[in-house]
């Protein structure tokens, strides 16, 4: 089943940050020339991979938690309408107001109106992928409302007039020296003797934001989880900027994708174990805030929850692709991806980079608007292995490639090849014939392990950026038959 | 059609009529055989791993140990009037002369050097203290604004893991889970302690 035929709208063009301005291979080729970027990414991702492996290895029941996480999310999606209605009822009972947004433009309009109603001309923000996706800061800016990003990495990106490149650490592409330079250039009251020591940099951010937290009237956040049964929302963070935003202002506005739900309070026992170990490689992140509506004398007196579709229901319509809605945005798949590690996040165009971005963005926008992303992978499978909710990213990539090929009217050589492959793989006689035919390649290789990159076109398009191993003398099934013959 | 009706209709179209939710096997650990003494040792180890300071004491030595914790956090000779406590904190735990939180504005709260609270639950395996907005834990701003946080944890409040902790908590309460001092991993993915929340966390463990 393909969503295109059901008429469910995808995320609209012209608003938000789900589409790049050029195809992935072009952007990636440029990123690959940036040695500093590659060094920064290589250093950061190898650090986090080791930390994650250590704390995941510590739990004897990791695989059981992972299977439960996957099942809970699948159960959530199967009854998404009912769970959303339950969430709405619980939040409303507890003094909150729930808003629904079909797409980015509608969500931006709702939030802008809510901020205007308070009379505030500035807001403090907790890092949130949903608000980046819809381009909320730009929308607020256009209405004369300034949004202060308060997460350290978001602040670095905002001050540097840069774009986020990682879903957990948006400034992962910057090293400490570059961050120091940005702070010196853009923070008005910064100590001119600021060094690039991480602790000093963190202190500079603390000083820069302290007053703003204390005077802010409105905060905007995302949510990591929402519990349908109780109406509880959860934000998982490290620095305490989240707590400042969720606690001090009078008005709190939370923008949340409709897939962020879990059905029951008990379900959090799974995700609060899976998320911190997968994302920052910690047993637990420093701060997790859980709140249900408003509480007298503690925190905001007004709470608004904006439920965002923006292509999620279109994604839900695809029986294979809907699994991406299980994602808890831990970023483990980015950190292990050999493609992401080399190209960085900007090359993906969308705010969702890496393996999850390659399967999520094309579904939110419709595959034709992000057509190169399903190919931004070597299908090595490392993302699937680390994913805490076991999303089979490689299979979804292949599925989206097929959908892309299907949607093309003009047949490219690649499309013809994929179609022929699909046909051959579905028929064992054809498949054996095709495998035998690859042995002709041995003639070209003349004993080398890898075929020359100078294959004639159109095959050179493929081998330009890939090594094609010389086909073996016999197929696996032939070798098996020979070795096991009695 | 309202946005609400339209989003719900899209979901129903996307899923179709036949959509049985899958079974959820909860065969992960939800209980623990370890003794209280073992759990306290694990909790201490985890907290220290986050660079929190843990001081153990007997039930009749809480006041003296709180004073020692404040010595460590603020330096000897601290002013009792610069310490604010949760309103429900037992009298015998409080340093003489400490202020009690009375819901004053955030800017005034931020002027205190240290906060003293109890907790609702502590999770050994993750080194987590859970504050629940009760008089003993105090409102959320109290444990956030002053730069030094001292929490008193009693042995009976310590559970093994996250599943056990959630069964003890009220979802309707404003909950804060605290695992170490405020920190960031945003610079080269290395953990650095101390950003916007308290830079110093001291735990008085009563057993
Ligand atoms: S796809 Fe899986 S590994 Fe990647 S960010 Fe989402 S939950 Fe994490």
TrEMBL record, chain A:
Cited PROSITE patterns: 4FE4S_FER_1 (PS00198)
Record-linked InterPro entries: 4Fe4S_Fe-S-bd, 4Fe4S_Fe_S_CS, FTHF_cligase-like_sf, Helical_ferredxn, LUD_dom, LutB/LldF, LutB_C, NagB/RpiA_transferase-like
SUPFAM superfamilies: 4Fe-4S ferredoxins (SSF54862), NagB/RpiA/CoA transferase-like (SSF100950)
Domain Lactate utilization protein B C-terminal: 413-483
Alphabetic keyword roster: 4Fe-4S, Electron transport, Iron, Iron-sulfur, Metal-binding, Repeat, Transport
Keyword Iron: yes
GO BP, sorted A to Z: lactate metabolic process
Region named Disordered: 451-486
4Fe-4S ferredoxin-type domain residues: 323-391
Superkingdom assignment: Bacteria
Membrane-spanning residues: none
Chain ranges of the LUD domain: 86-307
GO MF: 4 iron, 4 sulfur cluster binding; metal ion binding
Name of the protein described by the UniProt record: L-lactate dehydrogenase complex protein LldF
Species of origin: Geodermatophilus ruber
Automatic annotation (TrEMBL), chain B:
Domain LUD: 107-206
Database matches in InterPro entries: FTHF_cligase-like_sf, LUD_dom, NagB/RpiA_transferase-like
Pfam families in UniProt: LUD_dom
Tree of life domain: Bacteria
Record-given protein name: L-lactate dehydrogenase complex protein LldG
Biological classification of the source: Bacteria, Bacillati, Actinomycetota, Actinomycetes, Geodermatophilales
């Amino acid at each position: 089943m393909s969503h295109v035929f059901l008429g469910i709208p995808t995320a609209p063009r012209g608003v938000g940050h789900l589409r790049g301005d050029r195809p992935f291979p072009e952007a990636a080729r440029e990123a690959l020339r940036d040695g500093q970027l590659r060094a920064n990414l290589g250093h950061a991702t190898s650090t986090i991979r080791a930390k994650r492996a250590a704390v995941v290895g510590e739990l004897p029941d990791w695989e059981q938690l992972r299977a439960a996480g996957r099942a809970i999310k699948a159960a959530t999606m199967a009854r998404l309408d009912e769970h959303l209605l339950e969430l709405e009822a619980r939040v409303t009972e507890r003094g909150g107001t729930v808003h629904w947004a079909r797409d980015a433009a509608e969500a931006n309009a709702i939030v802008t109106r809510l901020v205007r109603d308070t009379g505030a001309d500035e807001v403090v923000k907790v890092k949130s992928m949903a608000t980046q996706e819809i381009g909320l800061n730009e929308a607020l800016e256009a209405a004369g409302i300034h949004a202060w990003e308060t997460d350290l990495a978001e602040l670095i990106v905002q001050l540097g007039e840069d774009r986020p490149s990682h879903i957990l650490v948006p400034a992962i592409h910057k090293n400490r020296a570059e961050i120091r330079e940005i702070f010196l250039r853009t923070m008005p009251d910064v100590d001119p003797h600021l060094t690039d020591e991480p602790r000093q940099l963190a202190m500079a951010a603390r000083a820069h934001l302290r007053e703003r937290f204390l005077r802010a009237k409105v905060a905007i956040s995302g949510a990591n989880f929402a519990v349908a049964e109780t109406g509880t929302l959860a934000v998982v963070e490290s620095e305490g900027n989240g707590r400042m935003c969720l606690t001090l202002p009078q008005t709190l506005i939370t923008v949340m994708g409709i897939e962020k739900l879990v059905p029951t309070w008990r379900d959090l026992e799974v995700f609060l174990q899976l998320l911190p170990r997968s994302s920052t490689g910690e047993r637990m992140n420093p701060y997790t805030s859980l709140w249900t509506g408003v509480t007298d004398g503690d925190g905001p007196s007004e709470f608004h929850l904006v439920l965002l579709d923006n292509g999620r229901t279109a994604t839900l319509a695809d029986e294979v692709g809907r699994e991406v809605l299980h994602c808890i945005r831990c970023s483990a798949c980015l950190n292990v991806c050999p493609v992401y590690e080399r190209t960085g996040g900007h090359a993906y165009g969308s705010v969702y980079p890496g393996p999850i971005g390659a399967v999520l963005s094309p579904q939110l926008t419709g595959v034709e608007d992000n057509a190169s992303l399903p190919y931004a992978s070597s299908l090595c499978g490392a993302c699937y292995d680390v994913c805490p909710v076991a999303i089979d990213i490689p299979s979804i990539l292949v599925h989206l490639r097929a959908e892309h090929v299907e949607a093309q009217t003009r047949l490219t050589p690649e499309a013809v090849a994929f179609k022929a492959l699909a046909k051959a793989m579905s028929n064992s006689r054809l498949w054996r014939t095709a495998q035998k035919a690859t042995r002709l390649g041995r003639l070209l290789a003349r004993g080398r392990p890898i075929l020359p990159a100078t294959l004639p076109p159109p095959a050179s398009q493929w081998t330009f950026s890939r090594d094609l191993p010389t086909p073996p003398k016999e197929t696996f099934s032939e070798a098996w038959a020979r070795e096991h013959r009695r | 059609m309202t946005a609400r009706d339209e989003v719900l209709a899209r979901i129903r179209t996307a899923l179709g009529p036949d959509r049985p939710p899958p079974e959820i096997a909860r065969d992960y650990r939800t209980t623990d055989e370890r003794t209280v003494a073992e759990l306290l040792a694990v909790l201490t180890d985890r907290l220290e791993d986050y660079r929190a300071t843990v001081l153990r004491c007997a039930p009749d030595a809480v006041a003296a140990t709180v004073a020692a914790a404040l010595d460590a956090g603020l330096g000897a000779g601290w002013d009792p009037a610069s310490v604010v406590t949760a309103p429900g904190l037992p009298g015998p735990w409080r340093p003489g002369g400490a202020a009690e939180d009375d819901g004053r504005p955030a800017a005034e709260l931020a002027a205190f050097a240290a906060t003293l609270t109890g907790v609702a639950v502590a999770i050994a395996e993750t080194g987590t203290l859970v504050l629940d907005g009760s008089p003993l834990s105090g409102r959320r701003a109290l444990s956030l604004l002053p730069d030094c946080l001292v929490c008193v944890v009693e042995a009976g409040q310590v559970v093994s893991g996250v599943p056990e902790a959630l069964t003890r908590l009220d979802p309707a309460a404003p909950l804060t889970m605290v695992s170490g001092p405020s920190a960031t991993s945003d610079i080269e993915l290395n953990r650095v302690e101390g950003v916007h929340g308290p830079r110093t966390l001291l735990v008085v463990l009563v057993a």
